[in-house]
TrEMBL record:
The keyword Ribonucleoprotein does not apply. This is FAD-dependent oxidoreductase. It comes from Psychrobacter frigidicola. SUPFAM superfamilies: FAD/NAD(P)-binding domain (SSF51905). GO terms for molecular function: oxidoreductase activity. Belongs to the FAD-dependent oxidoreductase family.
Amino acid sequence: MSAENSSKQAGVVIIGAGLAGWHVIDAIRGKDKDIPITLITADNGDRYHKPMLTMAISQKKSAADLVRAKGIDAATAAGVTLLANTNVSDIDAATRQLQLISALRSDPVYTNYATINYDKLVLAMGAHPIFPKSLPQDLVWHVNHIERFGQLQEQLATGSQRIAIIGAGMVGTEIAEDLLKAGHKITLIDLNNAPLSQMLPAQATARITKAIQSQGIDFLGGCQVSGVTRNDDGTLLVSYDLLASVSDNDNEEQQHEPLIVDHVIASTGLVVDDKLPAAAGIEFNPRTGIVVDAPTLRTNTANIYAIGDCMSIDGVACRYVAPLRAQAATIADDILGHEHGGYEHKPPMIRLKNKAISVMVTGVPRAEGNWQVKTDSADELIMDLLNDNNEVSATVTIKAPVMPKS
């Protein structure tokens, strides 16, 4: 396939072969078997379920075990042109043309795919991990992608190791339990004084802290990592400062020993790359990503849509798996010119995938606000977040795990 041929039948071009990108392909192919679709991805395009990455090590599942279909096989089955190991370096929205370069260092440029045209473009490029300056990327892991997950798993195969996880949000807390169950010694570090503190009130997060500590996970709250360096013996030294604002001790200079571990994993949040949206003139929020029209998932630039982790609706990032099918169905209908009722965004139920405690959240939670207790017992805590009109905008339900009968 040459650039000349691709311009004659440009069709739909999708950037990103994660869950979002493949859901769009499934949705379009469910309604139209013939429209040309090109999928561009910086990796090999393999289909896998990303949420499984935070549970797979303790289950002894390799990266290969998580792959549901090879990219080339899935593309062939769907009648899709797959441009694997390829990056998009520029979008010219006026001419509907993309500039492509190879993602393989050994292959500087795919000359046959220097440019490609599109009729409709879907941005499903996801978000990538935030690495603060204190976390050097050459010394710190992330598990946001199956390739890095596989590399980390290889490193952990030699036996029990000491691991520091920076960031105690949903993902960091899930990874901590997974690695603990796999036999490793875990230290979970966060700026806040409890896990999930940016999402839930203190009364709820206190129970989560107690549960994960009861498993044997060391939790260091109110700590800001200031550096990670490699020691002569190959171990890593994690330096951190105690934050007086969340410390139980008013003495800012209280002493602590640096942490020595074998591996450090960053779970410090996600950010969307603004390069392509900027090139296309797409409205973009540095905090939440690409801005879309909620009913159609169109961006403000004609013929370009966005889906999944890279986009936001009404100022809120959409970084959950559950709504992807509905989002993809809306995009498919809109691209194909079918009448549709529009995408109605509903915050999905959020579940913390930890055995130590059951945490379920509905609505749009935030730590601050008017949280009201509905149930408070040793086995269960239920709290509602009320808005200015005294309407429930979020609910958290925390339950102690059901112990198996002996």
